[in-house]
Structures are given as C-alpha cells and as structure tokens.
Write a structure and sequence with these properties.
The protein is mainly α. The chain is 66% helix and 0% strand. Helix 1 (8-25) packs across helix 2 (31-46) and helix 1 (8-25) packs parallel to helix 3 (52-62).
Length: 74
C-alpha cells in the first residue's frame, strides 16, 4: 500500500495517531501490531479522513477499543 502524504504535517498527524493508539493499546513493542495499525491509519487517511480526532476514534473503534478514547487524551 502506498501512502501519499502531501506534507510533513500530514505525516506527523498519522504518526502521532499511530503512537497514541499504540500506547493506549499497549502494543508499543509489537512491530507486527504497529504495522497493522499503521496500515489502518494510512487507509483511513487515503480515504479522506484528515481530522485527528476522527482518525483516533475510527482506529480505536475498529480495534475494539473504547469509543470514547479521543475524548480521554490529555
């Protein structure tokens, strides 16, 4: 899958979402899980989801995490 990121800010957005979800799910040290998570974020981004909270919510919901995760971040 190719990730077409138009800017550094968008790349940072996707990376931050991956990091936040990985921490919340306790998979920071699981390369395979991080890869799947990165693919999920890239897919959503490429489909037009550019809002950070929407990305967080969609990824967390798709991975059976609490749907109110985005409202809990500090």
């Amino acid at each position: 899958m190719t990730l077409n990121l138009p800017s550094k800010e968008d790349a940072r957005l996707c990376a931050d979402v991956v990091k936040e979800v990985a921490r919340a799910r306790g998979i920071v040290r699981d390369p395979a899980a991080i890869g799947r998570l990165t693919t999920a974020v890239a897919t959503l981004y490429n489909r037009g989801m550019r809002d950070r909270d929407q990305l967080l919510t969609a990824v967390m919901e798709s991975s059976n995490a609490p749907p109110d995760f985005a409202s809990e971040r500090a």
